[in-house]
Amino acid sequence: MEAVCKRIKEIDPSCVPLGYDSEANWFITMCEQYGSPYTSLDKNDHFQFNNETNRGFVKMFNEWFQKGYVTTEEIYGSYTSGLFTATEGQRCYMVIGSTGGASYQTPPTVDGQPLFETGMATPPQVNPSAPKVISQGPSLCLFDSENPQEVVASWLFMKFLTTNVAFQAEFSMASGYAPVIKSVQENPTYQAWLDKASGYNNLTALSVKLALSQSDAYFVSPAFNGSSKARDEVGILMQTALVKTGDVESAIEKLFKDAVGKCNFSIK
């Protein structure tokens, strides 16, 4: 990826070759790909991400940023799809994002014709023989109630949302989120939608099709009281570390130490 970014930058010096839309996803994914600790269910040691391996890849990405190879959503100030689809001024040529945001990578049109075709590939891997792809999305939460009928009704509604094949197919086609049950892929309407996937006007279908092909590589992070805080803190750590200059190594060490401290404080 670094070599590709370097070559793109040589061809178009004004561009930022790569956009990454979630600093937190970037950090967490790199931990998983390197086999390096991030968080744990161990109540005495939840936050394990301050280690040499993780500091090393953050420093590497700082170097990429300083060379103009990469930017992120927070640093750019918006989703990097804006750079990807730009027709003038600065732009980027590659974006790593989610299936839910794929439609925003749709190429602009002139006289009804798309200016370019968008290709999609699996995310770059530290170890291609053991790929890791983050799987996540909004949660469904069921709250208790003094009225047992409300609990039953809520449960039945949640069951419908997560197990009804027709609904899951419709929701996936509308939102770009991958379905949560495999049998949806046997639905004729859904299969026809996937078959129309292309890099012009059917980017959402293309992204879901690619995501489903990587199901064996999915991973999730453990959930516990404070796990969302860890996600927030490593995201802030990444965006802050990338722009650091001078004694970058010392600055990164402090960012990691502070992030772990804030995580531990949040659960006291």
Explained architecture:
The chain has 268 residues and is mainly alpha-helical. It has two domains: 2-136 and 220-266, D-Maltodextrin-Binding Protein, domain 2 (3-Layer(aba) Sandwich), CATH 3.40.190; 138-215, no CATH class. Helices cover 47% and strands 6% of the residues. The chain is built from eleven helices and seven strands. The protein has helices at 2-11, 23-34, 52-66, 73-76, 81-84, 148-163, 165-175, 188-195, 203-212, 227-242, 248-266, and strands at 18-20, 70-72, 94-96, 109-110, 113-114, 133-134, 218-219. The strands form three sheets. A three-stranded parallel β-sheet has the order 2-1-3. Strands 4-5 form a two-stranded antiparallel ribbon. Helix 3 (52-66) packs across helix 11 (248-266). The mean pLDDT is 95.
Which helices and strands, and how do they pair?
Elements: H1 2-11, E1 18-20, H2 23-34, H3 52-66, E2 70-72, H4 73-76, H5 81-84, E3 94-96, E4 109-110, E5 113-114, E6 133-134, H6 148-163, H7 165-175, H8 188-195, H9 203-212, E7 218-219, H10 227-242, H11 248-266
Parallel strand pairs: 1-2, 1-3, 6-7
Antiparallel strand pairs: 4-5
